[in-house]
């Protein structure tokens, strides 16, 4: 089996939360209110300063899906497509794309693996030339989101997801910024901490995992 490389999305491939970056577009389409947008921004500040627990990440993911209830996947794809060039591409770290190219030269497929909604993850993966995007899947009934997850990719679920793929994980690499992704990092033979939060930095140092600091904006 071949090796692969797996990249977390928010604060690993991108310099900030993709969902928060898209919040103005969500607001313009009536998906979220101004109050929710302000609360999300405040939560993001706390996350950056203190990190977040597994439960906080899970709760935020659940609450985020509930906001989509009644909207359609096509609506989401259109929103992300319209935001790609102006909003999302400017957030991509140049260093992450350098690593993507390095893995490609080795013949290793590259994937984005994130708790972010599948439609967002896949659109970014397609735009940046990844082999695939694996995100949280929201149930769709009669063409509309119900607000319930059929696959919620956070914590251990991210690890289970890549284990289900046909790759040699002992030879594979995973990149993440958060201690909540510890199971995901432990699932591969080559875990790498990128701009890690305080807890992950400590764990990475104790286990002699590489620690990378990304700063450059992709051209």
Break the fold down into its secondary structure elements and pairings.
Elements: E1 5-7, H1 18-21, H2 23-28, H3 34-50, H4 54-66, H5 73-88, H6 94-105, E2 110-117, H7 118-128, E3 132-141, E4 144-151, H8 156-163, E5 173-176, H9 182-186, E6 190-194, H10 198-207, E7 211-212
Parallel strand pairs: 1-2, 1-5, 2-3, 5-6, 6-7
Antiparallel strand pairs: 3-4
Helix pairs in contact: 5-7
User: Biggest sheet, in brief?
Assistant: 7 strands, mixed
Number of DSSP E strands: 7
Q: How many helices in DSSP terms?
A: 10
* Parts with pLDDT < 50 across at least 5 consecutive residues: 33-51
What sequence of helices (H) and strands (E) makes up the elements? Answer: EHHHHHHEHEEHEHEHE
Shape: globular
* Order of strands across the main sheet: 4-3-2-1-5-6-7
Taking Cα atoms only, what radius of gyration do you get, to the nearest Å? Answer: 17 Å
Distance between the termini: 34 Å
Average residue-wise pLDDT: 86
Strand content: 15-25%
Estimated structural class? alpha/beta
Provide structural commentary:
- Helix 5 (73-88) packs across helix 7.
- It contains ten helices and seven strands.
- It has a seven-stranded mixed sheet.
- The protein is an alpha/beta fold.
- The protein has helices spanning 18-21, 23-28, 34-50, 54-66, 73-88, 94-105, 118-128, 156-163, 182-186, 198-207, and strands at 5-7, 110-117, 132-141, 144-151, 173-176, 190-194, 211-212.
- Strand 5 (173-176), helix 9 and strand 6 (190-194) form a beta-alpha-beta unit.
């Amino acid at each position: 089996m071949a090796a692969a490389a797996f990249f977390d999305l928010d604060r690993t491939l991108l310099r900030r939360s993709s969902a928060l970056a898209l919040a103005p577009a969500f607001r313009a389409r009536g998906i979220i209110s101004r109050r929710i947008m302000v609360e999300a921004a405040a939560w993001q500040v706390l996350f950056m300063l203190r990190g977040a627990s597994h439960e906080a990440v899970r709760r935020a993911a659940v609450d985020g899906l509930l906001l989509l209830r009644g909207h359609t996947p096509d609506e989401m794809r259109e929103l992300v497509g319209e935001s790609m060039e102006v909003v999302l591409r400017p957030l991509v770290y140049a260093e992450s794309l350098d690593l993507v190219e390095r893995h490609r030269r080795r013949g290793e497929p590259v994937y984005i693996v994130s708790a972010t909604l599948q439609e967002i993850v896949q659109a970014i993966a397609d735009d940046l030339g990844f082999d695939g995007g694996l995100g949280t899947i929201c149930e769709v009934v009669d063409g509309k989101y119900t607000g319930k997850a059929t696959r919620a990719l956070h914590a251990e679920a991210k690890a289970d997801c890549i284990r289900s793929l046909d790759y040699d994980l002992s030879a594979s690499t995973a990149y993440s910024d958060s201690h909540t992704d510890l199971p995901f990092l432990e699932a591969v033979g080559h875990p790498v901490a990128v701009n890690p939060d305080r807890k992950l930095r400590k764990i990475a140092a104790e286990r002699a995992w590489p620690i990378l600091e990304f700063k450059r904006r992709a051209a």
